[in-house]
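Async update (no meeting this week)

Hi team, since we skipped the sync, here's where things stand on the single-chain job. The sequence we agreed to prioritize is pasted below, unchanged from the tracker. I ran it this morning and attached the output directly underneath so nobody has to dig for it. Comments welcome in thread, and please keep replies under the output.
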Amino acid sequence: MTEPRWTPYAVAVAIALLAALPWLTTSNYMIGIAISGLIFLTAAASLNLVYGYAGQLSFAQLGFWGVGGYCAAIAVVDLGQSFWVGVAFAGLVNLLLSIVIGIVITRTTRHAFVVVTLTFALLAGLIARDWVGVTRGPLGIPGLPAPSLMGFVFDTSARFYYIALSFSLVALAFLYALKTSRIGLILKAVKQNDPLVESQGIAPGPYKLAAFVIASVITGMAGGIYAFNLKLIDPSFLDFYYMQTFLIIVIIGGAGSFWAVVLAGAAMVVLPEALRFSNELRMVIYGAVLVAVMMFMPRGVSGWLEDRRIAALRQALR
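Output:
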């Protein structure tokens, strides 16, 4: 779908409003929701790269999210490094891990890919719970210190918000540039028809691997930042609630649509907070939303809007 000409102006206004948010409200609760929304949106956009563009549903994102969180925390608490080094360390570990895993699983069928990535996510959760010597097991790693930079300490929600905002903007800008590049176009073609892409002399494997690795690195770094926002990390950090949130953002927005996923992520900031009174009911409602979207808008909001646009054009030509 062609982007409207007013898109750059809307993006500029949105960035300005986000930058001004801590000045518009003094509520730590509201700013905390915004931090979560920015991090979740970034992780969902990374999942969209693998699922929406390369056509591979990866549950491994949950595992990389947890690995990133633990690596950042361990780098700071156990190795005495700064927060910034910790987040970079989280990205590096996920880079190496995703390459090792991705070389193997990106050559499998799409069904096998889902099973293997789900297994990896479950395994990451077991390691977080049982490798007590490193992860502290169920006790986790509490008391993560506030980040600091050149003497400035990000010790309030309003200050930490700008870390989350900066990371999200850089990551989303990179993913958008990737989506509009030749790599993004080839990934879309791979999703539609692998054999056809191969017949044009293009090997799909390296592109699938690149999408998997890039998404894993960004998700891991997002997990590292989010762990320091919570100021602790424990096995609940690998709860499937997070994967469910990332996936529902992509499905509602429409897999393969960048801006629709971004807007869906913004809308999904409110829903988890509105349902926080009951974890059980929250999961039921999430499931109901997913079923409803798949039934009435199987290609998400972006697909539904595209269908309406095409129908209007056909009607106008009659």
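Quick observations from my side:
The two ends are 22 Å apart (CA to CA).
The longest strand covers residues 141-142.
Reply here if anything looks off.
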